[in-house]
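User: Quick sanity check before I run a bigger batch. Here is a single chain. Can you write out its predicted 3D structure?
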Amino acid sequence: MALPETTQLTLALRDGVLQVVFDRAGVSNALDSETVEELAAVFEAVADDRSVRAIVLRGAGRHFCAGADLKSIGDVTGADRRAAVVAFNRRFGEVLTMIDRAPQAVVVVAQGAALGGGFGLLCVADITIVTRDATMGMPETRLGLPAAQIMPFVVARIGMTATRRVAVCGLRFDGAEAYRLGVAHTVVDDLAAADRALEGVLADIKACAPGANAASKQLLAMLDGRHMDRLADQAAALFADCLLSDEGAEGTQAFREKRTPRWART
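Assistant: Done. Predicted structure follows.
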């Protein structure tokens, strides 16, 4: 098994653990098309390799992942602009499903911002460790957007009732609330404590047979019952319609200018 060449992710494989670090600290590790494709390539590369026992997702610098890179998405131009937005959003949904169904144990260690798509990554991990002062949630609606591809995974993680409140209020919350909701399994004070917690989690994972873990995750996926392909197509279309609408233009512009969008001023 050969790992793919990456520029947006830093990869390190040691003792059966593949560390995948989002390496775009200058933009809070926001997800652009290149990052999403590299993430897909990594999970595809190790899918059949049982010597890789666990995959750990982390973020370089102050933040885990601030979600989609709205600037790169919003700057798409041309006659096929909507098609490009749909394709990006749909592809991210495919990658979330890929991570969710990876045969290896997937662990996320999150500090700083874990918002939107970054929050979705927390919800597809088998084990999620967050720092107490991390900021998580679904602020998309405050930008005039739906939390399109992550929605089914958030519902699976915390339930419909909690997801409704977080989504329609565009809420952000800290590590303690993430633990209360069931997003996080462990809350720690800082990254040093996160590293110690991660060591314990990885020891537990390595105590389990890799084939049995893969079979367990296959069974869990079968019990899920979600029709992901159809849902992801519809979610991508809704996301594109919102992003390219007047509300989407105002929300993304307000985000860039660090100001309150028009609809929130009343």
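The CA atoms of residues 3 and 141 lie 37 Å apart.

User: Great, the batch can go ahead then.
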